[in-house]
Design goal:
heterodimer; A: alpha/beta; 5-stranded mixed β-sheet; about 20% strand; B: Rossmann fold; Helicase, Ruva Protein, domain 3; 3 domains; 5-stranded parallel β-sheet; 18 helices; 16 strands; binds zinc ion
Chain lengths: ~180, ~450
């Protein structure tokens, strides 16, 4: 238990190797240690049968209250389809300047769009999505730099256009916070 | 978008207000919320908002009535109404009453950003034009563009003058010269900079994939297409699209591309809705398109449409003055990413680098430095850390073709003829590499 690390909590089945790679990238980007934890909770109470999706607002709150607190930041990684009441879907979301964020790989996989499974691409997209949402927890807003990971993306194809890392402007905002 | 755009959200549902609030705050807007129309009107009396986003159905005064009152308060205010499926009729009424647009809940994230973007465009247009007219152009986002040589300064000058316009640009230059980087800088310094910069590596995709990539497809267009997929042209709306290796596209795609460039509209694969998109095209090629036109493998009409402005990036061997700067830059870059203290380079090694021909240009130099940092002693890059034995200027009279052939052969051997990896190392797509292998008749050693 340390307020100087980031907890990556997985919900549902993920390959260990996959989680480790994600953790490694986060740690490189934010210069904090990343601990991988397995989260257990009954997702059925977050399921909206009418939309056949999971409520991202409630899940974020749940991750924050049940798993947050031990670490500087807590991040919940899911593999179910997330929505928030106003939007048809989200890849992830986070508390701006807060301590928690969530994301799901559900809509990040190429297979979902009728294309060949590409594990490397899935990993890349996941890393970008997680780093992006964590960026919000560190207070970063969306960035206009086309290759910056903090650029907002509404389609997976948008995610592919950016780098996995922060641009120098966003980077310096974070470095400033860490001083 | 020099000033922060402000948005007032009016909705009686907590979760809707919260969700929208978070969404807009993260996008850098100034946001406030009101839980009913009465509250909203109160706020609007004392404070101006650029955009009001309001639910139509609310207890007490409904959104339509509120819209009419807002319009009397400020005729030019932009009001967007939100509606559930059942009330599309009221939405139409709202448009008649002067609403800017309406969205049906729940909406696609993309529709929302689109809508707000369009509204913001309207707001900032006049202002932006003013700023543009006055701005003495100095290039932004050039931190990765290293070079102080006369040749590079000329390129930057051209970039500067073309960035502000809307013209199509073709960037030419050998592989590894940094064409994509130049395209990014053009975009980042254009009036389109707040909108997407979309990259398509044409050479890496088959005809049908490229088609779906550029135009998108509808759910069910083919087996396995569970969701609609937006194409790159659509994504590039209001921004720029960068078509790398444009020379590799098929004749059929050339026709389609020409049609899109003329009409700025297209349909998704498997769809029938006409989609319009406003994008700027920036292309890159390491082949001579003009001679392809002459031999009939590239359409002349398309060529002229694309080639309004041509920027040619000189190969590294013609800007050797830049090599020390670049070496410095790559050392810093890789030492940082590998978490190592910065190291120096031996003057003799640097000297040899400046004499090297670099058929793979900057990318090759970058790879060399990265490798040298990995294999070196961690204090200084010396000659023995650099694979410079062959191809030094003056040591031979080989033609460029010979150099290229040798280099490709070396790389292929190094990666045991794994085409994907070799192509990656050479910074070309696989199709290009296959073509080169054919051209030079290269074969793996038995
Ligand atoms: Zn975001
Ligand atoms: Zn950024």
């Amino acid at each position: 238990m340390s307020l100087q690390d980031i907890a990556l909590v997985s919900f549902g089945y993920f390959e260990n190797e996959f989680l480790e790679k994600v953790a490694g990238e986060i740690s490189r980007d934010f210069q904090f240690q990343v601990r991988i934890k397995e989260g257990h909770m009954d997702l059925s109470e977050f399921y909206d049968p009418a939309r056949r999706q999971y409520n991202g607002n409630s899940l974020l709150k749940e991750v924050d209250s049940r798993f947050g607190g031990d670490s500087l930041k807590t991040f919940g990684l899911f593999n179910v389809d997330l929505f928030i009441p106003i939007l048809t879907y989200i890849f992830g979301q986070a508390f701006l300047n807060g301590r928690s964020g969530i994301a799901s790989v559900y809509r990040l996989s190429n297979e979902r769009y009728g294309m060949k499974l590409d594990e490397k691409l899935l990993l890349d997209r996941t890393v970008k999505e997680v780093v992006h949402e964590l960026g919000h927890t560190f207070g970063l807003l969306h960035c206009h730099n086309p290759s910056c990971v903090m650029r907002s993306s509404t389609y997976v194809e948008d995610i592919d256009q950016k780098n996995t890392g922060l641009c120098s402007a966003c980077r310096s905002k974070i470095d400033f916070l860490n001083l | 978008m020099s000033k922060k755009i402000s948005i007032l959200i009016v909705d009686d549902e907590d979760s809707v207000r919260d969700s929208l609030y978070n969404w807009f705050i993260e996008d850098g807007y100034r946001v406030e919320c009101a839980e009913n129309a009465k509250k909203a009107l109160q706020i609007l009396e004392s404070e101006d908002f650029d955009i009001v986003l309001a639910d139509i159905k609310m207890p007490g005064m409904d959104g339509l009535e509120m819209l009419r009152r807002i319009k009397t308060l400020r005729k030019d205010s932009i009001v967007i109404v939100m509606t559930a499926f059942a009330t599309v009729d009221t939405a139409v009424q709202a448009l008649k009453d002067g609403a800017f647009d309406y969205v049906t809940k729940p909406f696609d994230p993309d529709d929302l950003s689109h809508l707000i973007r369009n509204a913001s465009k309207l707001i900032s247009l006049a202002e932006e034009n003013e700023v543009l007219r006055e701005k003495v152009v100095a290039l932004d986002n050039t931190e990765d563009l290293i070079g102080n040589s006369e040749a590079m300064r000329l390129v930057l000058k051209e970039v500067e003058s073309v960035a502000q316009s809307n013209s199509s640009v073709i960037i030419t230059g050998e592989s590894g010269t940094g064409k994509e980087l130049i395209a990014k800088v053009i975009h980042a310094n254009s009036p389109r900079k707040y909108f997407p910069f979309v990259i398509v590596h044409c050479g890496a995709l088959s005809e049908s994939l490229l088609e779906s990539e550029l135009f998108g497809h509808e759910k069910g267009a083919f087996t396995g297409a569970m969701y609609n997929r937006k194409g790159r042209f659509e994504m590039a709306d209001s921004g720029s699209i960068f078509l790398d290796e444009i020379s590799t596209i098929s004749t059929k795609m050339q026709v389609e591309l020409l049609r899109v460039l003329q009409s700025k509209s297209f349909v998704r694969v498997g769809g029938n809705k006409e989609i319009t998109s406003d994008f700027r095209v920036i292309c890159a090629t390491n082949r001579d398109l003009k001679s392809m036109v002459d031999e009939g493998s590239f359409r002349e009409d398309l060529y002229y449409r694309l080639n309004v402005v041509n920027i040619n990036i000189p190969p590294l061997r013609e800007r050797t003055d830049d090599i020390p700067l670049l070496v410095d830059y790559f050392i810093k870059k890789y030492c940082t990413s590998m978490n190592r203290p910065p190291i120096s380079i031996d003057p003799a090694a640097l000297q040899r680098l400046q004499e090297f021909k670099f058929p793979g240009n900057i990318r090759e130099l970058e790879n060399m430095i990265e490798r040298a940092i990995v294999i070196g002693n961690g204090r200084k890059i010396t000659l023995k850390d650099l694979p410079l034995e062959k191809n030094v200027v003056g040591s031979s009279f080989e033609s460029l073709d010979d150099l290229e052939k040798n280099h490709i052969h070396q790389i292929l051997t190094k990666y045991s003829w794994n085409i994907s990896r070799a192509a990656k190392a050479l910074d070309v797509d696989r199709v290009t590499l296959y073509n080169k292998i054919k051209k030079y008749d290269l074969k793996p050693a038995l």
